[in-house]
Design brief:
The complex is a heterodimer of chains A (199) and B (101). Chain A is mainly alpha-helical. Among the domains of chain A are: 78 residues, Four Helix Bundle (Hemerythrin (Met), subunit A) (Up-down Bundle), CATH 1.20.120; 41 residues. Chain A has 11 helices and no strands. In chain A, helix 1 packs antiparallel against helix 2 and helix 2 packs antiparallel against helix 3. The relative contact order of chain A is 0.05. The model of chain B has no long low-confidence stretch (mean pLDDT 87). Classes of the chains: A mainly alpha (199), B mainly alpha (101). At the A-B interface, helix 1, helix 2, helix 3, helix 5 and helix 8 of A face helix 1, helix 2 and helix 3 of B.
C-alpha cells in the first residue's frame, strides 16, 4: 500500500515536471523543471531496485548535463518573450500528436495485458543481492567490449565539443610550433654590406 | 498492486510529453534538446521496469550505455549550439534554413 502511494505521488510530480519543461516560457525554468523530473525519475528507479542507476542518473544528469545546459542558457543571452512567438498556431497539432502517441502506447500495453500477468515484482532485497555488484560483474565480463566502446565515445565527445567551440583569437602573442619548425634562415637572416667608415 | 503496466503507462505519458514538446517548440533549440532528454529518460524507464519484472540485468546494462551515449550527445549538441549562436546570433529553429535549396 505504501509503495502505491509513493509511486502515484512521484508519478504525478514527474508528469507535472515534464509538462513544466515544455510549457515554461523561460528556458531557465524549463531546465530547473527538468532537474526535478530527473530526480523524481531517480526516486522511481529506486522503487524498481535499480539503485546504482538511480544514483548515476542523479549524479551524471543533474550534476553534469543539466549544469551544462544551464551554463549554455546563461551564455547565449536569449530573450524569452520574443522567442516564443508563433506558439499558438502549432500547439493544437502538437497536442493532438502527443495524445495520439500516448493513446497508442497505453492501449497497446493494456490490450496485451495478459502477457504481463505472470510477471510479479520480486524484491531483490529479500534475496540480499547487491545491485551494484551484479551490474559491475555483468558489465566487466559479458559487456566488456561495449564498455570500452562507451569510454571511447566519451573521449570522442570531449574532443568534438572542444574542437567545435575552440576559438583562435587574434592578436595574441603565443608560440606556434609549426611556424618555428618551418622557419627558413634565408628569411630570418639578412646579410648587409656595411660600408667602411671614412678612411 | 503495482504492475508492469503502471510503470509502462507512466513512461508512455512522459514519452508523449517529450514528443509534444519537440513539435510545439519551434523557436528554441535548447528546449528541443531537453525534450530529447525526456524521451531518453522514458525509454530508460521502460528498460528498468522490464529488467525488474523479468529479473534480468541486461536491461540495466543497456540503460547504463544509453546514459553514456546521451551524455555525449548532450555535450556535442550544446557545443554545436554555441558554435551556431556565434555565427548566426540566434538559436531559433525556424531561421536555420541555410542548407535549403
Amino acid at each position: 500500500m505504501l509503495l502505491e502511494v509513493i509511486f502515484y505521488a512521484f508519478a504525478s510530480v514527474l508528469i507535472c515536471a515534464s509538462l513544466g519543461v515544455i510549457l515554461f516560457k523561460n528556458p531557465v525554468y524549463s531546465a530547473v523543471s527538468l532537474i526535478l523530473a530527473f530526480i523524481t525519475t531517480g526516486l522511481l528507479w529506486l522503487l524498481l531496485e535499480a539503485e546504482f542507476l538511480a544514483i548515476v542518473l542523479v549524479l551524471v544528469y543533474v550534476g553534469a548535463v543539466m549544469v551544462l545546459f544551464l551554463f549554455v542558457i546563461m551564455m547565449l543571452n536569449i530573450h524569452a518573450e520574443e522567442e516564443r512567438s508563433g506558439f499558438t498556431n502549432i500547439a493544437p497539432i502538437a497536442i493532438f500528436l502527443g495524445l495520439v502517441v500516448a493513446a497508442e502506447l497505453i492501449a497497446l500495453y493494456w490490450i496485451q495485458s495478459d502477457q504481463f500477468s505472470g510477471l510479479e515484482s520480486i524484491s531483490n532485497s529479500a534475496l540480499s543481492v547487491d545491485n551494484t555488484l551484479l551490474l559491475g560483474t555483468e558489465l566487466f565480463t559479458k559487456y566488456i567490449l561495449s564498455f570500452e566502446i562507451a569510454g571511447f565515445i566519451l573521449l570522442l565527445a570531449i574532443i568534438v565539443s572542444i574542437s567545435l567551440t575552440l576559438r583562435a583569437r587574434k592578436n595574441v602573442k603565443k608560440q606556434v610550433a609549426r611556424d618555428q619548425i618551418s622557419a627558413d634562415p634565408k628569411q630570418r637572416l639578412r646579410m648587409v654590406d656595411i660600408k667602411r667608415g671614412l678612411d | 498492486m503495482l504492475t508492469l503496466q503502471s510503470y509502462l503507462t507512466l513512461s508512455a505519458i512522459i514519452f508523449s510529453i517529450g514528443i509534444t514538446g519537440i513539435v510545439i517548440n519551434r523557436k528554441n533549440i535548447i528546449i528541443v534538446m531537453m525534450c530529447t532528454e525526456l524521451l531518453l529518460i522514458s525509454v530508460n524507464f521502460n528498460f528498468i521496469a522490464f529488467s525488474h519484472f523479468l529479473q534480468d540485468l541486461s536491461g540495466q546494462v543497456f540503460v547504463f550505455f544509453i546514459l553514456t551515449v546521451a551524455a555525449a550527445e548532450a555535450a556535442i549538441g550544446l557545443a554545436i549550439l554555441v558554435a551556431l549562436y556565434r555565427n548566426k546570433k540566434s538559436i531559433s529553429v525556424g531561421e536555420l534554413n541555410k542548407l535549403r535549396n
